[in-house]
Amino acid sequence: MSRPRLRHLAIVVRDAPRMAEFYCTQFGMEQFHTDPDGSCFVTDGYLNLALIQQQLTGDVPTGFNHFGFEVPAVAPLADSLAAAGVPRPALRGGDRPFAEYRAVDPEGNWFDLSEHGFLPPSAAEPPG
């Protein structure tokens, strides 16, 4: 991989299981993960779509949330982002299996950075 590749999109939805079923049925995607909060993750084998369950107690509305790039290495890109005047990417806490870092563009849009990709480990590992 010579340049970052867009591999992940995330939207906040009111009914994540229903949305996952819709994308699987209508577009042949496969669900590969469900978070404890009900958020569902589906994939077409290359790009994954995070269907983030909206929380009534939260302050995040439905709609676009973030996107993610698979990159060869985060460190050089972090230096480049800082030189461009945006904050350095922050390590994502917890047990997030799909992205290691969160960053922000000049207008405040969130994006994730991952060296290992955004698909489940079994799909990301080369065969044999």
Describe the structure.
This protein is 20% helix and 34% strand. It is α+β, with helices and mostly antiparallel strands and 128 residues long. The chain has an 8-stranded mixed β-sheet with strand order 2-3-4-1-5-8-7-6, covered by helices on one side. A hairpin with a 4-residue loop joins β3 and β4. The model is unreliable at 123-128 (pLDDT under 50).
Give the helices and strands, then pairings:
Blueprint: E1 5-13, H1 16-27, E2 30-34, E3 40-43, E4 48-53, E5 63-70, H2 74-83, E6 90-91, E7 101-104, E8 110-114, H3 121-124
String of helices and strands: EHEEEEHEEEH
Calculate the mean pLDDT score and round it. Answer: 85
Biggest sheet: strands side by side, in what order?
A: 2-3-4-1-5-8-7-6
Q: Stretches where pLDDT falls below 50 for ≥5 residues? A: 123-128
Structural class: alpha+beta
Rg over alpha carbons: 15 Å
Tell me the helix content. 10-25%
Secondary structure: number of strands = 8
Give the end-to-end Cα distance, rounded to a whole number of Å. 20 Å
Portion in beta strands: 25-35%
Task: Give the overall shape.
Answer: globular
Alpha plus pi helix count: 3
Major β-sheet profile: 8 strands, mixed
